[in-house]
Amino acid sequence: MSNTQNNKKITAKGRETKDKIFRTAVELFSKNGFYGVSIRDITSAINIKESSLYHHYLSKEDLINDIYFYFAENIDATRLTDAQIDSILAEHDGHSLLQKCLQEFRGVMEQPLMAMAWRIISMQQYRDDKAFEILSIDFHRMRIKYYENIFRTLVKRRIIKALDPKLLAFEYFYTLIGMLTEYNVLKFLKRKTQVMENLMNEHIEFFWNKIKNS
Amino acid sequence: MSNTQNNKKITAKGRETKDKIFRTAVELFSKNGFYGVSIRDITSAINIKESSLYHHYLSKEDLINDIYFYFAENIDATRLTDAQIDSILAEHDGHSLLQKCLQEFRGVMEQPLMAMAWRIISMQQYRDDKAFEILSIDFHRMRIKYYENIFRTLVKRRIIKALDPKLLAFEYFYTLIGMLTEYNVLKFLKRKTQVMENLMNEHIEFFWNKIKNS
DNA sequence: GTCTATAGGAGGATAGAC
DNA sequence: GTCTATCCTCCTATAGAC
Description:
By secondary structure, chain A is mainly alpha-helical. Chain A is built from 10 helices and no strands. In chain A, 30% of the residues are buried.
């Protein structure tokens, strides 16, 4: 979190205001981009003065860093634990596991604040090294490692063919993330997303049929 | 192109200046984003005055629209013709065809102006409907149709298994574009891209092995 | 913790001379 | 086709009263 308040007593009212600022910033940044939103836009939306914002955040940059932090912190929540994976495999097949994974993932990524934060970081990745870092390392790389782990388990148990788990993870994830990105942009534009939803399910289906041990 | 000059005689000097403006804008926008670059930044980089720019472009928006247009126009050049496809298949196998396709594609997309324009449109897709439209329709959808066509040919000639060409195209393309996007960001940050290059080749290899008729 | 007031600069764009 | 000069708006951020 931002260090603005390191030497200040934090009151309930203060926390509430800071929270309002945060949520409003996420909303506006995700809609109009970091550079398309002014401090005035944010403060006037919640009826405080610009100067009040600077009591809670050092700068506009401090504010967006807080959003990055929020995203990075919550991205971890999208993972099934080893125990959960085991219990799914005990009752269902690998195909169900992949579906369950996507469900879990989408459950977190489509929470409004996370979806907006994701969008903000995606926009910022081109201008802000910190955003690119979080997106490519904390998000993509970690996520690929997670899938690698899952595929390794599936190979070990001979549920799927003896393919390189790392390569499988890359193949599987990049397709999914490409589709999910387009899906999210469509959702923001309030257009139909059914095509993309179907594609994602077909992707899992297709991928599964290519790798399963039959 | 922009309509600024509809009723004006275009001299060689004018064309040259407009071209300088265009190329400088592409360079700066791709580095610092549309909102991170001012008209002043562009004109001072080529030693003309702001007012001179407005002789060639109606507005900053007119300028970026010209860049969109440039991208959309040149994206078509990345396609192998049916004749070229035939001749490749006559001498080599489907695997070579996929490699050749990627080569052709990268050859166009990595030309400096195109790479920068692509980056600009990618950034703008979140803020500008026109950019999203070009990226998702003119680029992604058309490209997928192109691959669909190739896979259909391969299926017809029994070079690959009898799978749905459209699905194959989606699978193939989304992975590639995800990797290529990350590859391009890395290149802009002047970081190592070898990992991504290897991944792209492994992707083709992996995909090919999954679909070929053996 | 929030306010009023204001500093101080950068932005897009235009009028009109040459 | 390019210049000088200028307009006016919007921006981030701060000082200091309450």
